[in-house]
Amino acid sequence: MHNVQINAFGKPWEVVETVSLPDPGAPGAGEIVVDMEFSPINPSDLVLMRGLYGVKPNLPAPVGAEGVARVAKIGSGVTGIKEGDRVLFPRGASTWLTRAKVKADGLFALPANADPQQLSMLMVNPPTAYLMLTEYVALKKGDWVIQSAGNSAVGRAVIAIAKKMGIHTVSVVRRPELIEELKKLGADVVLVEGPDLAKRVREATDKAKIMLALDSVGGPGLMPLNDCLANGGTLVAYGVMSGGPGPFFTAPNIFRDLTLKGFWLLNWFNKNSPERALEVQKQVASWIADGTIYTPVEATYPLTESKAAISHAAKGAGKILFKDG
């Protein structure tokens, strides 16, 4: 079987390699053996491979944080799951591998009619979007939220979930050709980033009072997004796609009573019960099954082509998945 790992921190496409591992063997009590179907390459994976993530694994380290798999074998004492079911990899398991033996606790059979490629992206981005929309500001129908990177996987999920909630969205993008694409997904307003962003947002939303902003870019784009908030608003930062710091002035936060919060899904999992995590995952799974949440996939690669897959993903052009085989 194959496993993708890193032996050093650095440029992801240089430090990644595919190695061979023995079969994990039969499952023990409370365990199942699963065969990976699809597993995405997320921006956070690339950050980890550079050694810049919130946790730094011991090397050599297997990589991959989420994925969907078929149950191949069931150990004693496992209930609610049968051979052939699709399940998520459990949180904390590495996922860029052919076959794994994992604990069955907290796993559930995924909707049989759902697209497995979409299910493979269930664990990270859609819950991030859902939780940021529901846990910081008490939004109600008709309210507005603004976000950077509206075409990202999280951004698309924000648009879809907000529409389901009756919340209006302003999505900021870098390329004008993305405007119509996101509007077809349900985005209310899509604007290209720029220094006059706050003025254009006010015009496009009829001076709506925006209390929540979501940012995954950081760097120089953080302040223009902050400027779009109404007094007392909250900016939730959940990524650093820009790769560097940017200006963030204290005065607006003092005089306009603005709040800056950081969101990291791992922290949320650590602070909440397994039952709550399962509830969120099942909700997201239902939205994937009915087509509410959909992320375009640009390409899939076998595990044996890990360097090519990582190089493609690092370009940021679209979602890249590893597939079985």
Automatic annotation (TrEMBL):
Residues covered by the Enoyl reductase (ER) domain: 14-322
Name of one Pfam family that matches: ADH_zinc_N
Top-rank taxon: Bacteria
Family: Belongs to the zinc-containing alcohol dehydrogenase family. Quinone oxidoreductase subfamily.
GO biological process: fatty acid biosynthetic process
Catalysed reaction equations from the record: a 2,3-saturated acyl-[ACP] + NADP(+) = a (2E)-enoyl-[ACP] + NADPH + H(+)
Protein transport as UniProt keyword: no
Name recorded for this polypeptide: enoyl-[acyl-carrier-protein] reductase
Enzyme class: oxidoreductase
Keyword Secreted set for record: no
